[in-house]
Amino acid sequence: MHKLWASTYKELLLLSRDIGGLAILFVMPLVLVITITLIQDSTFRSINDHKIPILWVDYDKGEVSKNIYDGLAESKSFNIIEKKSDKEAKELVFKGKYQLAIVIPTNLSSELEKKVNLNVEGLLSKFGLDQEMPESQKVDLKKKEVILYFDPATQMAFKNSIKNGIDKMIFKIETQTIYKAFQSQITDDETEAIFDTESFITFKEITPTIGENEIIPNSVQHNVPAWTLFAIFFIIVPLSINMVKEKSQGTFVRLRTNPVSYLTVLGGKTLIYLSVCLIQFGLMLGIGVYLFPILGLPSLDVSGKIPQLFLVAIFAGLAAIGLGLLLGTVAKTQEQSAPFGATFVVILAALGGVWVPVFIMPKFMQTLSNLSPMNWGLNAFYDVFLRDVGIIDLVPELTLLFLFFVITTAISILYNERKNAV
Amino acid sequence: MIQISQLSKRYKNAEEYSVLGLDLQINEGEIFGLLGPNGAGKTTLISMLSSLIKPTSGHFSINGLTFQKNGNQLRQLIGIVPQEYALYPTLTAYENLYYLGSMYGLKGRQLKEKINFHLEVLGLEKFSRKKLDTFSGGMKRRVNLIASILHDPKVLFLDEPTVGVDVQSKNVIIDHLKKLNTLGTTIVYTSHHLNEAEQFCTRVAIIDHGKIIVEGAPKDLISQHPESHNLEDVFLTLTGKALRDHA
After folding, report:
1. Is A225 found in the same domain as A79?
2. Interface mutation target, options B87, B88, B91, B107, chain A, most CBs of A under 10 Å
3. With an 8 Å Cβ cutoff, are B103 and A258 in contact?
4. Residue A208 lies in a domain
5. In terms of C-beta density within 10 A (0-12 exposed, 13-18 middle, 19 or more buried), how is residue A47 classed?
6. Residue A85's domain is classified under what CATH number?
7. Which of A83, A419, B99, B143 is the most exposed place for a label (fewest CB within 10 A)?
8. Is residue A237 located within the same domain as residue A347?
9. Is residue A49 scored above 90 in pLDDT?
10. Is the residue at A282 inside a domain?
11. pLDDT, tens digit, for every residue of A67-115?
12. Contact by Cβ (8 Å): A388, A216
C-alpha cells in the first residue's frame, strides 16, 4: 500500500509541476462546455433572439403568399428580407450571403382558389347539389411550385425543417381554401360558420416530473453532461503522454528493475487522474449552476442529483483512465499517443451520441454505439439529469463503465508483462 | 554470487547475436568490469542480468535466485544504475529519491536518513530540494547512483556510471562505490574508461562480438601481454584498432 501511495504522490507532484498543462487540463474543458452550450442554446429556445435572415420574393401578392409570410413571421425564427427578383435572391443565397430564399410564384393564390373551386363544384355536381359544370369551363390548371433556394453549405437538418414547415403551411392553406369554397357554395352568408376550420387533432408533450414540477430539458441539461463526458474522456491524452514521457525518460525502465508491480504504478496514475476528472466535473457543474445564468443561459439543475452525478463521473472517469492507461502502455512516442488519443475520443464521442443522437444513426452505427463507453456514460448522465432516476437504475451503465476500466487495465498489464517477460 | 551459463541474446530482426554462449562467474565482494568496444554486448548482458530483456537462450542466477522463480526477491537484492539518468526532471533530487526508494519498500525515517546520508556523501545535500532539470550531468549521475543503492543491494550493476561527468564527480562516484564494496556490495560495471577500470576493478572481462575474449585481474592481464603497459594496450591488442561504429 505504501508503494501505491508513493506512486500517487509522485503523480501529484508531476502534475503540479506542469502548471501550464494543469491549466489546460482544467480550463479548456470549461471553455468547451461554455462555448458549445452558448452555441446550441438557440436550438433549444422557443423564442429566438437571433433570427435567421432569409430572402422573400413574392410574385403572387395574394392571400396564400400573405399566409405563408405571416406563418414565417409568427415563427419568430426569421428576419424576412423582401427582394424583387428571383435572380437576385438566388445569386445572394448561392454566394452564401443568406441561408435561404423563398420564391412564391405568380397567381398562386388565384389559381389555388380556381383549382379548389373547380374541385368543389365538380364534387357538388356529382351529388346533384349544383349544376353540372360545362366542359368549356373545365380548365387544366398547371401545378404551382414554391421555389426554395438553399445555400449549399446549409445543413440538411435545417433544410428539412424549413421544407417541412412550409409544406405544413401550404397544406393548411389548401385545406382552409377548400373549406372556404364549400362554404361559398353552400351558403351566401359568409359569416355563417358551417365548418370548424381549426385542427381537430392536436398534440401535447408530456414531460417527466419531480413531484409536481415538470423536468423541462434545456440546452444546459443536454450540453453539460455530453460535453463534460467528452472532457472527462480527453484525460486519455495527458495520461498517455505522461506514460510515454516516463518511457522516454527511462524512468519506466528503472521501475521495471524495482520490486514493484505494474498494477501499482498504474494504480497511482489512476487515483490522481480520477481526482482530476472529478475536479473537472465539479468545476463544470459549478459553471452550469452559477456562471450560465450570468451568461443568459438556463441554470443547470442539480438539486437532489449530486451523489448520482458524481457516481456517474467516477465510473466514466475510470473508463476514460482505463483507455488512457492502455494507450500509454502501447504507444511508444508522444506522436503516436497524442493524435491517436484525441482522434479516438472524438470518434467515441460521435459513436456515443454526443453530436448526433444515436436513434437517428444507421442501424450498424447504432450497434457500434452500444460499444462506446461514452454512450453508456451519456445515458447515465441523461438518466440523472433528464429522467430523474435513482442510483439503482444507474447500475447497468455503471457496471459497463467499470468493466471497461477493468478490461482495459487488465489488457495494459498483460501487454506490459508479455512485452517485458524475462 | 552470479552464475552465467551459455547466455545468448539475439534481438528481433538482428542478423548476429549481441551476446553468444557466454559463461561467467562473478564472486561475492568482487568489483567486476565488463569492458569492450561499442556494440560488444556489455549493455545487453547487464540488461539481461537486471531483468530488462529476456535472454534468447541460456540461464543465469544471482545468489541462487532467478527472475523466473524469484522475480521480486531478486529485484530487491540487486541495484541497477542505468546508462540514462532515468529520473524525473521536474521533481527535486529528494522527491526522486523518496519515490524510487519507496519502490524498494523503504519508508519513513529510515528512507529519509538513507537519502540524506547518500546525498551528503556524494556532495548533493545543498541541492536536494532543487529540481533535477537544473542539475549538471555530474550531479544527475550522482542522483542516478543514489536511486539504485538506497536499499543496500547485494549486487550493483552499473552501466557506464561515469560517462560524461567531470573528474571531480567521477572521483566521488568511484570512491562511494569502493565504500559500498567494502560494506559487502558486489559490483558489476561496464565502462569505456579503461584506466578507471584498471584502478577500480578487482577483475575484468574483455568482451567483443558477444563473447568474452579474456578475463582476469587487470594486473594479470597486463602481465600476460608483455607488449602492453596498461589495460588499454591489452584492450587494443585484443579487440583491434578498427572503428566499431554501429547503428
Report:
1. no
2. B88
3. yes
4. no
5. exposed
6. 3.40.1710
7. A419
8. yes
9. no
10. yes
11. 888 888 887 778 899 998 889 999 898 888 888 899 999 988 888 888 8
12. no
| Residue B244 within any structural domain of the chain | no
Distance from CA of B75 to the nearest CA of A (A): 5
Q: Any CB–CB contact under 8 A between B236 and chain A?
A: no
Residue at A307: amino acid letter: P
User: The domain containing residue B112 runs over which residues?
Assistant: 2-239
Q: Residue B246 domain-assigned? A: no
CB of B129 within 8 Å of a chain A CB? The answer is no
Report how far residue B219's alpha carbon sits from residue A87's, in angstroms, rounded to the nearest whole number: 102
Long-range contact list for A128-136, CB < 8 A, 24+ apart?
A129/A185, A130/A185
Q: Is residue A199 part of a domain?
A: yes
Q: How does DSSP classify residue A288?
A: I
ipTM of the complex, rounded to two decimals: 0.84
For residues B123 and B105, is the Cβ–Cβ distance under 8 A?
no
Q: How many domains does chain B have?
A: 1
A114 CB near a chain B CB, below 8 Å?
no
B90/A3 touch (CB, cutoff 8 Å), yes or no: no
A375, part of any domain: yes
Minimum distance, in Å, between the CA of residue A7 and any CA atom of chain B: 7
Q: How far is A283 from chain B (nearest CA, A)?
A: 27
Q: In chain B, what percentage of residues exceed pLDDT 90?
A: 30
Query: Are A159 and A285 contained in the same domain?
Result: no
Q: Is residue B67 a contact partner of residue B74, using CB atoms and an 8 Å limit? A: yes
Q: Is any Cβ of chain A less than 8 angstroms from the Cβ of B110?
A: no
Domain count, chain A: 2
Q: Which pLDDT value is given to residue A217?
A: 59
By residue range, what is the domain housing residue A141?
52-203
- pLDDT confidence of residue A46: 46
Lowest mean pLDDT segment, chosen from A186-190, B20-24, B90-94, B127-131: A186-190
Interface-testing mutation among B68, B90, B109, B130, with chain A (most A C-beta atoms within 10 A): B90
Q: Do B103 and A6 touch (CB under 8 A)?
A: yes
Going by C-alpha positions, the residue among A150, A56, A165, A57 that lies closest to residue A99 is A150
- CA dist., res. B132 & res. B87, Å (int): 8
Domain boundary among the residues A203, A230, A259 is at A203
- Identify residue A252 by its one-letter amino acid code: F
All three cell numbers of A383, joined, read 438518466
Of A18-32, A184-198, A274-288, highest mean pLDDT = A274-288
In a domain, B117, yes or no: yes
The pLDDT value recorded for residue A396 is 92
**Contact with chain A for residue B51, Cβ under 8 A:** yes
| B11 interface with A at CB cutoff 8 Å | no
Boundary residue ending a domain (A172, A203, A234): A203
3-class SS of residue A199:
coil
Kindly report the CATH number assigned to the domain that includes residue B152: 3.40.50.300
Q: What percent of chain B has pLDDT over 70?
A: 96
| pTM higher than 0.80 | no
State whether residue A2 sits within 8 Å of chain B by CB: yes
pLDDT in tens, A343-385: 998 898 888 888 777 777 788 888 888 888 999 998 898 888 8
The cell for A120 is: 368543389
Q: Is B17 helix (H, G, I), strand (E, B) or coil?
A: coil
Write out pLDDT tens, residues A199-231: 677 777 666 666 666 655 566 777 788 888 888
> Do A279 and A351 fall into the same domain?
yes
Nearest chain B alpha carbon to A1: B105
